[in-house]
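User: Structure please.
Assistant: Input sequence and predicted structure:
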Amino acid sequence: MLAAGSGRAAQASVSRPGAKPGGLPEQQPDRALKALLREIDPHRIETTVRRLASFGTRHTLSSQDDPVRGIGAARDWIYEQFRDYAAASGGRMTVELQSYVQAPASRIPEPTRITNVVATLRGTDEPGRVYVVTGHYDSRASDVLDATSDAPGADDDASGVAAVMEIARVMARRKTQATIVFAAVAAEEQGLYGSDHLAQVLKDAGTDVQAMFSNDIVGTGDAHDGTAADPRTVRLFVEGVPTSETPAQATTRLSVGGENDGPSRQLGRFVRDVAQNPQTGMSVRVVWRRDRYLRGSDHISFLLRGYPAARFTEPRENFAHEHQNVRVENGVQYGDLVEFCDFRYIARVARVNAAALWSLAQAPGTPKGVIIDTTQLTNATTLRWQASPAADIAGYEVVWRETTAPDWEHALAVGNVTATTIDISKDNVFFGVRAIDRDGHRSPVAAPVPG
């Protein structure tokens, strides 16, 4: 196997001890990540879920100025919690209320102020490289326009907001190389309006968002419907062909890879590798779909703008109690109530998120401008990419797999270069490139385009 400009490569394809069957090894958490994960507290998560449910309803059209009930009271409470976390950050975390007035639209019958609560933990080395994590703090009753009935929204989605807030609390006291944005977004139930605004603000600013996660309905591994509970699994939905691609772009990309090599699919592989371990106590079930049938969450707002994004959700939903008004039948309560939540499960989901975000923010960014040379008839493969701006970059690995394999199977360290030639035919396998820093942190893989 030849590395460009250096003769025969010093290191051959590796399949290290502990590798998954047919794949590369999982990236084990370092000491700092293990300590971070231990601090995530299910009791704090329970307090947050109960507090959010206590506002009665958090419907987008509910009161914005009542101090104890409605979405405005919830907004103000979340804001104050984020400010408390930021106070321990040494100035690295800032908090804002990001508002705009939504004109009448689907599920918005009159002009309505929509406000996201956003906490930004600025990176120390590459603040322009950004990762976003959200939960939506609005709730709804059975009637999507019913802004007055109780809608505690414990699972959907106080659970996701509680996970995001707990990660923000723990990470605020730590330094990350890249920037992480923690957001409680509004108006998801009315049509993703809050996340759409957040994504557009980032897009308009030219922000380099390299990954986004939505946590939506992550309250329990038990569907409470008579089926077997699955308290150690969380689903991660990742789209195939990028939503934002034009037909021409899709044709170009598909000429060297497939729908399994888009940025969101690479993100799904990365999350499973860094977050599926004893420290999180979870198995990450990656689902190769944009989202569930007839459903959609806030990651879609980011996908539509070309950002890699994915959605965490519990393994099996109980559709009978989601979005239902609280009621009592034969002495049994139904509705999206706190009693349906498993706070230790939410804490494990938070650890999965934290492992992914920490690993992304501490590693070099995903390689950019990766090209596979398709101009020559040769059985060797030449790849080129842009140099990483990371100060602690150590080099790069080329990875590859059989075209029928779902996961990367082999890796070759090629050094701190921006081009390499490998004696493997590009006709037979799929290739990718990832960056490595001096501490062994690896970026997500970037698949090449022809050039």
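Residues 4-22 have pLDDT under 50 and may be disordered.
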